[in-house]
Amino acid sequence: MIEFSLLAALLAGLLGGVHCVGMCGGIVAAFSFRADGSAPPFRLHLAYNLGRVSSYTLFGALAGALGASLKLTGLMPVQIGLYVLAQVVMVLLGLYLAGFNQWVLVFERAGGALWRQVKPLFQKLLPVRSLPQAVVAGMAWGWLPCGLVYSILVSALAAGSATSGAALMLAFGLGTLPNLLGMALFARQIQPFMQQLWVRRAAGITVAGFGVWGLVKLVYSAFLNT
After folding, report:
1. Domain boundary assignment for the chain
2. Which of 161, 169, 183, 226 counts the most CB atoms within 10 A of its CB?
3. pLDDT tens for residues 140-157?
């Protein structure tokens, strides 16, 4: 059901904007001003996000390839285990977005060491003066430890192939575009809305619902095969 997974990843990126506002707000602010204090053209913001989504897609391909190599063993429990893990993480992600738990922050702490290696390169790229430089800065931005990104990567691990994993993370990255591009242009208008409790709860419950539905499908499939 790759189409269902792609839709879930797309909506997770879109509804996860309640997290993006807080997580990436500082970086977007850094990108929103040139050295002379003027605002950069919109095409630079597109280039930043092109680089960021490219990094996500690469991560997805690597995760999908790793998952596929595990499945080559032919062990059905491994496949089922990866699928269940992906759905459970999706549920935890939704509960986190809704403000009910913080389990997915474990992923962010695990990625902190990696970000400390990338951060000096990222800082050297600022201020950005050209489109190629903006793309590279965006690719470095993609390495920012984010529980939202890492949670979807678990689904990419269970996707079954490098292509499917890349497609899953690409869908997620595209889902994040409206929020992060909107934040760059209309931060003052968007942030108060995204921080409202009912918005966080609605977004989180919707994302968690995809994980629950995935588990229900698995149980139903097992019931039919018995």
Report:
1. 2-42+53-111+144-224
2. 169
3. 888 877 777 888 888 888
SS3 string, the chain, reads: CHHHHHHHHHHHHHHCHHHHHHHCHHHHHHHCCCCCCCCCCHHHHHHHHHHHHHHHHHHHHHHHHHHHHHHCCCCHHHHHHHHHHHHHHHHHHHHHHCCCCCCCHHHHHHHHHHHHHHHHHHHHCCCCCCHHHHHHHHHHHCCCCCHHHHHHHHHHHCCCCHHHHHHHHHHHHHHHHHHHHHHHHHHHHHHHHHCCHHHHHHHHHHHHHHHHHHHHHHHHHHHHCC
pTM given for the model? 0.78
Cβ–Cβ under 8 Å, residues 99 and 130: no
